[in-house]
Amino acid sequence: MDEIKFHCPECKQKIGVQSSDAGRQMDCPICQSAIIIPERSNLPVRVIAARKSTQAVDPERNPKDFQETIRIIPQAQVDKPQPASPPDLNAGPQSEVAEAARLKAELENSALRLKELLTERGLLANRVTEVTEQAAQSEMRLKGMSEKSEALEKECLRLRTQLTEASRYERENGELRFQLAGQEKQIASVTAVSNNQHIELANAEKELIKARADLDAARMQIQNLRRQLREVGEHFGDSERERVLLLRQLQESVQHHQLTTLTNELGEARARLLGQVAELDLVKAERDALLEQLRQRDGALSHAPALEVA
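Given the sequence above, the corresponding structure tokens read:
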């Protein structure tokens, strides 16, 4: 009996059937697509339902299976039932040989397909192993990245704490510097006043020296007057009234009055100078205390851990 050979439109598998099965519906043994057997080998094959399975033959990977013909006689999915053929009385050893050859071909195809499936199974197992190893490596990398992320977060927290402390120190130093600037202004003001007092004191000392000179001159005059008085008393012992009058004039002299005034002014200037010196010492003590606080702050900042960039 003639045989019809054709290729499955879906998986390109070469199939051979008996010519008596032309026009019937069958499933491709490879991709399970429902197709209609053509009337002749050179006619196109019509696809009823494309159901490409994972066992479809790839002609690029399995060219031998693609070229080898699978001979199949459909047993189901017919359009309508066919009447049973009467037994062939002439069938004998030849039909059994043909059937045995067909079964042998199917067995060889099944063996080849089993070998291919085993090969694919080995490849899939290797692929699963590779994917498992890659997943383990990815998990290790992810764990390392998580640890690095935690370390970076801790470092950021430490840096933020240091930055906060540095900001607080800077703010306190700014306040101390502001206070120090005020104290410096007070010191400058007190120093200016003290300089003025020193100038006044120098002028007063000059006036005192001049007054002492005038006092010495007055004393000389007094001695001269006393000497004259003695001389007058010796010559005019009876003129006691004139001697008393001369002494009163001597006490009321202008030089004696100016000397007293200058002495009083000099005492007041000295008292003011002592008060200014005491105030200046107090301001200097406050300034020294502020400078000591600044030195302590600078020492704390220098011993603090330096800020680092991650």
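Residues 20 and 85 are 12 Å apart (CA to CA). Try to locate this feature in the token string yourself.
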